[in-house]
Design brief:
Chain A: This is NAD(P)/FAD-dependent oxidoreductase. The structure holds two protein chains of two kinds. By secondary structure, chain A is α/β, with parallel strands linked by helices. Chain A is built from 25 helices and 37 strands. Helices cover 31% and strands 21% of the residues of chain A. The chains are: A alpha/beta, B mainly beta. Strand 37 of chain A pairs parallel with strand 2 of chain B, so a sheet runs across the interface.
């Protein structure tokens, strides 16, 4: 079959991102030809500021090398400007006479700097700040001349000014407004910024209107303002804004209105012509930041690929300034109005200013100066329109007011030096991440995880990695949406997948994948375990539990160790054992020469270093049930001694622990689930850091939920107080069942509660008594008839060949 | 001289699963894909030596159970951006019996 022809006009970030997305999903659909008017392959335009500041070189910021175009069979024309499109004959013509026929045309012509229409604007030495040529001009000028004037105190202007200063020029920034970055900052933050930039040696002239540029021998020599003042200038950089570059489209008769008008599929009024990037006007808005361009690219690619799915519905954007040593973040509507509230923290001496604008219980804007640690968190709350009343009292102190482990308690990316370790699991330091982001052109947290491994193991440093990414990219960074796709095999979110499984009653993975249009024939190592869990938790006793879609630990019911051996932890209900059990464990340890016997944090005994072949034999000899210490499942119920022995004990915590562990035994869950029962408020069983923590008091039991003692210490929150042990089991069972049915796979209870809110959990457990009872009943039903996996495997050895090795 | 050794009936290797062979050349993992193709790799991840046989098999890849490196069953190469290679062995199915060339 003859391939269709796709011609892309514009060899920049938006156009090439669309091509990349297209190649991912439909690699063989088109013969692709790309025209770019710059002499370079696609480069990372947002990294021009670091290039000007001497922190990067041009070759560092190339995103797609010439080899990349060749490998993907893309015909690349650099340095060729298309000046005519014949839509009747479907041909694009370049100035040099070359031409290309198309079946589909993609316009990605970007934007151009707005040059003030003032006398002298055409003098030599008057430029914008848009491309590599401008940067080259600035660097060359800095070698010969001294005085630079930047007109415009916006993001681009300040970055240009900072770079020119570093190149050795005396720089004056001229701005019409009373303070800098008025579209990103309020007055207070703007003034703070000005002070720090003045400390770096920049000069500011505010509330100044430029009247004309005065030349000498054809080159600019001075800038005159309307108030008569005049300053010396050998170079003038105009950074007063950008304008979508749509002249070509307009000349071809494509409907434009301050940009090429597109619908939600990025299609223009000519159905064969699509447009993405800064040149478009989507719902009346043109975007000048990278994040929206990438969202557009993704949508556009699916339509070019004839999939006909995906809509672009606009973006909320956030801003960071890429000037080394200055931390600034702003998002949304930060100026507020009559019906908004503000939370402000201002430490003028410490150089920290934070303002959140709240309307109807939601964050609608934020400005952060000096400490931008929580910028992406606020931005996420803003984009997700999340109610904040539950966290309002500590909102200002950030997401991580409790420390993460593994990176020396550091929670400010900017305060770290390049050598400091960010990811304690994989030994990745800050410099490595920054280098990868800049040189490999990374834009998302997933890219960074893949390339550097930072944040890809325990995940505790992801917030920090995100900050580093955000401050390196500036405006190019878009935090991941909270309802993200399960994995690359589908665009569906976890919630949608769960809903589909319920609605269509899928009972096995192949049916579910077919029904939901999975892109891969049998998924991947990320989605299959999730799907398997969703199936069996939604349709207990009916859905097929697929062992090949479970992680090895759950397949062989033991925990794999670094050398490929396994650890065996038998159940000891409530952490109570007996001489008889201990003797059996000791005998097994002797018989199999177990290299290490260890007491676990959950009050059980661990036999480490058992080979796969020996597992069934060890289980048979132990004759104790599986402790599920390897699964996304109920782990242990940790208990204290309680009223039976302890002189302080008010309740029989040990017995309740045993009862709970027996009631919920064999329970699979989205992630591991840990309980604890303490017999008095001294809380020796550490109930405050468990998924469900129970504390006995004289008059009954208090139930706490959502605690976590792991990566990030999370204190469990009070759910309710009940009188009897039976009530504890019912209430906590209902809580766990709702978590099992609604949380995303690999969410601990704390993550799930964080998303749905403790209020809604309380409502369903405490106020809706019938709902609570029904949830508890569903849990009991799901657990009915569960068998001990160890006994089953030890007895039916023949049907479990996974433990055998074939010798040849 | 290499020769073909009879291993096991195909039915004894689960689809999207594997079996481990102990041989003179060390442990070899024999995988079976969803469409009944078989592949054999050295049972050692190029990263930290994890037993690939115990990983989750999908498409024509296996994810190592230790640190989730993705190894191609066809070439033995690690998926980018990771770099590494695991030795491959020839393997075939005849009359529902799996043979390995050693």
């Amino acid at each position: 079959m003859q391939k269709m022809k796709l011609v892309v006009i514009g060899n920049g970030m938006a156009g090439m991102r669309t091509v990349e997305e297209l190649l991912k999903i439909a690699p063989d659909l088109y013969d692709i030809t790309v025209f770019g008017d710059e002499p370079h392959p696609n480069y990372n335009r947002i990294m021009l500021s670091p290039v000007l500041a001497g922190e990067q070189t041009i070759s560092d910021i190339i995103l797609n090398s010439r080899e990349w175009y060749a490998e993907n069979n893309i015909t690349l024309h650099v340095g060729k400007r298309i000046n005519k499109i014949d839509r009747m004959r479907r041909i694009a013509y370049a100035e040099d006479g070359s031409e290309a026929e198309y079946d589909r045309l993609l316009l990605a012509t970007g934007s151009k700097p707005f040059m003030l229409p003032i006398p002298g604007g055409d003098l030599q030495g008057v430029i914008g700040f848009r491309d590599i040529k401008d940067v080259d001009t600035m660097i060359d000028t800095a070698k010969q001349f001294k005085h630079a004037v930047v007109i415009g105190g916006g993001l681009l202007g300040l970055e240009a000014a900072n770079g020119l200063k570093i190149q050795g020029m005396d720089v004056t920034v001229v701005h019409r407004n009373e303070w800098l970055l008025e579209r990103q900052l309020d007055r207070t933050a703007g003034k703070m910024l000005q002070k720090s930039l003045e400390a770096k040696g920049l000069t500011f002239l505010l509330q100044k209107d430029t009247e004309q540029l005065i030349g000498k021998d054809g080159r600019v020599a001075a800038v005159r303002f309307k108030d008569g003042q005049q300053i010396q200038a050998d170079l003038v950089v105009m950074a007063v804004g950008i304008r979508p570059n749509y002249a070509l489209a307009e000349s071809a008769g494509i409907y434009c209105n301050r940009g090429i008008v597109v619908n939600d599929t990025m299609q223009t009024y000519d159905p064969r012509v699509y447009a993405v990037g800064e040149c478009v006007a989507h719902r009346g808005i043109s975007y000048g930041l990278v994040a929206p361009l990438f969202e557009m690219a993704k949508v556009c690619a699916t339509h070019l690929a004839n999939f006909g799915i995906g809509r672009y519905v606009g973006s909320v954007t956030s801003t960071k300034l890429k000037v080394t040593g200055i931390d600034l973040f702003s998002a949304g509507d930060f100026s507020g109005g009559e019906d908004t509230e503000e939370i402000v923290l201002h430490d003028a001496v410490g150089g920290v200013y934070k303002k959140l604008i709240i309307k109807d219980d939601k964050i609608i804007g934020s400005v952060l100066y000096g400490d931008t640690t929580d910028g992406s968190w606020y931005f996420q709350l803003l984009r997700d329109k999340k109610p904040i009343h539950e966290i309002r009292d500590h909102l200002m102190f950030g997401q991580d007011s409790l420390g993460n482990t593994g990176h020396q308690g550091q929670d400010k990316a900017s305060a770290m030096t390049d050598e400091m370790e960010v990811c304690g699991c994989n030994g990745v330091c800050k410099g490595t991440i920054v280098k990868a982001v800049k040189e490999k052109g990374l834009f998302t947290i997933d890219d960074v995880k893949k390339q550097t491994k930072a944040g890809s193991s325990c995940g505790s440093c992801v917030g920090l990695v995100e900050q580093i990414l955000a401050s390196t990219l500036g405006g190019g960074y878009a935090p991941p949406s909270t309802s993200k796709a399960v994995c690359g095999c589908t665009d569906m979110s976890h919630e949608t997948v769960r809903q589909e499984i319920r609605t269509h009653k899928y009972l096995n993975i192949p049916d579910a994948m077919r029904g939901m249009g999975w892109r891969t024939p049998n998924g991947c190592a990320t989605c299959r375990p999730a799907l398997n869990y969703y199936l069996i938790s939604t349709w207990p006793h009916e859905a097929v539990d697929d062992p090949q879609s479970r992680f090895i630990n759950e397949r062989v019911h033991a925990n794999i160790q670094k050398d490929g051996t396994y650890s065996v932890i038998p159940r000891m209900y409530g952490g109570v054992t007996s001489p008889d059990q201990l003797r059996k464990i000791a005998d097994v340890a002797d018989k199999y020469a177990v290299p290490m016997v260890k007491v676990t944090g959950g009050q059980r005994i661990d036999l480490l270093g058992i080979s796969r072949e020996n597992l069934p034999k060890v289980w048979a000899d132990l004759d104790m049930p599986s402790g599920y210490a390897y699964g996304k499942s109920i782990r242990t119920v940790k208990t204290c001694v309680g009223s039976e022995f302890c002189r302080f004990g008010t309740q029989n915590s040990t017995q309740l622990g045993i009862d709970i562990e027996k009631a919920f035994d064999h329970m699979w869950a989205p992630h591991k689930v840990k309980f604890a029962v303490s017999g008095c408020p001294r809380n020796c069983a550490e109930s405050g850091i468990k998924d469900v923590g129970i504390i006995g008091v004289d008059s009954g039991w208090e139930i706490y939920v959502g605690g976590n003692g792991g990566i990030k210490t999370e204190v469990a929150q009070f759910l309710c107080k009940v009188k009897t042990a039976e009530e504890v089991i019912e209430y906590s069972g209902a809580f766990i069942q709702i978590y099992r049915e609604e949380a995303r796979y690999l969410d601990r209870t704390v993550h799930w509660i964080e998303r749905v809110g403790l209020d809604s959990v309380k409502q369903r457990i405490l106020e809706d008594a019938e709902g609570r009872k029904a949830a508890f009943e569903r849990l009991l039903y799901a657990l009915q008839g569960a068998v001990d996996p160890w006994a089953e495997r030890a007895q039916k050895r023949d049907t479990h060949k996974e433990f055998d090795t074939i010798t040849v | 001289m290499n020769h073909w050794i009879k291993i096991t009936p195909l039915a004894d290797i689960p689809r999207l699963g594997s079996r481990v062979i102990n041989s003179a050349k060390g442990e070899i993992a024999v995988f079976r894909t969803e469409d009944d193709q078989v592949f054999a790799l050295h049972n050692k991840c190029p990263h930290k030596g994890g037993p690939l046989s115990q990983g989750i098999v999908y498409g024509d890849k296996v994810a190592c159970p230790l640190h989730n490196w993705k190894i191609s069953l066809v070439s033995g190469d690690a998926e980018e951006p990771d770099e590494g290679h695991t030795a491959c062995f020839a393997v075939k199915v005849e009359d529902d019996m799996v043979y390995l060339e050693l």
